[in-house]
Amino acid sequence: MDASTLKAPSWLHGVNFSDHRNYWEFGYDAVMISDTAFYRNPNYHKETDTIGTLDFNKMKDVVKGVCWALFKFK
Q1: In whole angstroms, how far apart are CA 10 and each of 15, 35, 41, 43, 61?
Q2: Are 65 and 35 in contact (CB under 8 A)?
Q3: Which of 20, 23, 45, 53 has the highest CB neighbour number within 10 Å of its CB?
Q4: Cβ–Cβ < 8 Å for 9, 15
């Protein structure tokens, strides 16, 4: 399982694509967890974005990585 961290400025394309942006705007800390789907899946947020185009093995790895991080750093 690969994981990377990046503390990026909000003006960087893609960093403000999620709900965490609203927390930052009002001074709350927030973390964005992303598998960068919009760079890898041409169906992302289109009518062709169906369950058949999802990679459940990758999704499983994301969930495992988040759980690992939460338990390690709590």
Answers
A1: 6, 18, 23, 25, 26
A2: no
A3: 20
A4: yes
DSSP codes of every residue in 14-63: TTTSSTHHHHHHTT---------HHHH-TTTTSTT--GGG--HHHHHHHH
Where do the domains of the chain lie? 20-73
* pTM of the model as a whole: 0.55
For 20-43, the pLDDT digits (tens) are: 778 888 888 777 777 677 777 889
Written as six digits, the tokens of 53 are: 């185009």
